[in-house]
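User: I'm writing a short methods note and want a consistent example. For G-protein coupled receptors family 3 profile domain-containing protein, I'll paste the sequence; you return only the structure tokens, no commentary, since I'll be parsing the reply automatically.
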Amino acid sequence: MSWRSVNILAVADPYGQSLSAAFSTSADQVNVSLYSLQQYLPGTTDFSVHLDTILASRSKIVMFFGFPWDAKLILRQAKAKGMVGPDWVWVGTHTMYNYLDSLPLDTDRRLADGMMFLTLREEHSTPQYQSLRSSFLAQYPSRSELLVSGVALTYYDCLLALANGFDKMTRLYGDAAVQNHSYSAALTDFLVPFNGTTGSLTFLPTGSRDVRECQIMNIYNNSVRVAYIMTLSGSVDKVADPIFYGGSTTIPVDCPPLAIVYPQWTDMGVQVLAVIRGLLILVMLSGMFFLIINRAEKQIRQLSLPFLLVISLGCVLILASEFILIGVPSAPACHASTVVFTFAYEMVFASAIVKTYRIYRIFDNTRISKGGLKSHVLFRNVAMVMGVQAILFLIWIAAFPVWPTLVTTKTSFYYECRPTNVAGHWAILGLSFAFNGVMLLLLSYLAYKTRNVDSSYRETSWILHAAQNVFLCSVVIVPLSLMTIESFALTAYFIRSVFMLYAVAFTFMALVGRLILAVWIEHRIKSARPTTLMSTGLTSATDTHFQMGPKGPSTDRESPMVVPRCNTTAGSPGQPMSTTASSAPGSEIDGVYPVLRRGGGLGIFERFTQTWHTTQVYMNVPRGLVAIGPTPPGAGVARSVSGKSTTLRNSVRKRNVAAPAGANHDEPMAAAIPLTSLGFDASPAGVPPACLEFVHLASGAAWVVQMNGPEEVASWTHYLKAVASVITSTGSRTGQTSSSSGGTNSAAGNAAVASGRNSSQSPSPSQVHVSANSDRIIRTVVG
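Assistant:
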């Protein structure tokens, strides 16, 4: 039957104990495992404890060494526990031959379906059996001839054995000696071989019957039939297919198949994770190619292309190390998964550490002349970190190797990479964990210390987020990687893999992916024509706008004029004409600051990808305009609120002279906002201190300008109050009045307010004069 694991349920009397001991001994000889041995006292009616133990053993073959009256109660309780069914087999002894005769209820008879039991071989063709059958039917004509079988024949032959023995004794010692028990004879002398109703009877020296053949009976549908005949040599001849509970002839397995609790390629969950992992690797490799192609971009150069590539490669290798864990591991695989993962982890975070340390060195210096650290020096430090880890791994592999080991339990099997030297193995792993843990803490510290540096280097805040995220994920990943719980092994693998995918994806997006998206979006913006805002070139647009200066304020009161930058030279068609200079304070205000775009006009995705950019901000009061746009090459960072920004103007002139006529460098677009549609907030929410926010009231588009300090914010605010609406973080706005060269124009009737802010009135400013070279500055700053 291919059964190699069974349970025993036996009555605790000489009969049951004798059979249990004999069976246990023989089972060892034929490699049959005894999963549980349960004995109950005679008279027991509650078998719950015994049945629960058998149920927990997983073997579904039960050897019953008891009596019919016990079997009736046991099967009733077993049915309630699901232990009677097509996948369970109950095997009894010859006492169960007349079990059906003792069951008055059909429900109990149905519970016996599929039961098997072993009894002596009955040869019904012998003269002794035929003589007994004829005598029985003559005496009891109304009874079934099936009664002349089983235990009845065994007892009949037993009586014949006793009769033959006493007959022999009387012939040897006489009747009187036998009746007086005055003769001395051995048991072997008493037992006489003979032909009985169950076949030829011979005896062993112990007095037991020497059984030459047995028959295995099968109960089904309220009848008993022979299924197999077994000889003394152990050969088994099938007489009929056994029928099990429910009518199935399929032989049940002794134990359900062991669950495979290690990841396999045939597992659907493993396949899904592998596909996701492969897609992420493809995305990262594509990102690395994109970075190489666009390596001349300013944003990429600022964040150091070599380190971006190393970080990306580290993320790819971390994901690749997960593939090594799938399937039956080999000895190299046991080492490779750990080595590849650890080196990849250090490629990512050692690179992040040295980048953050360089920023820390720059911004922590009291003298800027100390300078920063060159990339080749930082790469040397990364190599040193990985060199220390390489030494630890060499010791580990050479002195304390691990080997794949098959672990089998009653319910499952899986593979473990077990060390040859447990103490040395955990010592090396402990040092490795401590070394990399210190790296993570150091990275978090440096990132925290540099979180408020200049916006051009605000990468460190993302590095801090990545370090925190990895630390939280490691709380789940590390225990599931080091400890194996047999019933939870495969589930632990899936949980660990999902957390690993999330940690790697988040780290890549925080350190590299967001930069790739920003550059890609910038390219898309450059390639798109701003047809929705204006259809004319910058030169004609600015000419139309500013040539109306003497007549009144700008006609564009509803939306900011967004234009692409262009370079012109003196004498080119786009060159503005000079006017007379103005010395009125506050007529022109300009400077170069970090600026963050937010508010209206941004898509859902763009709201999460905006970063700070060094930007030129210029306000011309007589012309009624604020211009915000990228800085010219070589422009100084001089800022002015008095109309005398010499450094900026000189740089603008140099740029105009250097650029060829009609040159277009395809730089980012700028925005020109009429003062009549402008609001400002001197204390915007959600940004660092010393910021001033410009808001286009109709569209809600906003630009947050980070200045040098509260004094500079106050200076800008002083002049803006006279010409624009004041917006406060509490939701109020003052009305604004703008002036031009021709007089004062009120604009208090603006009803559209960005972000749901309200308005109140403020006094009108005094009239100011037109700057002599305002046209030139406006064209060069905005254009």
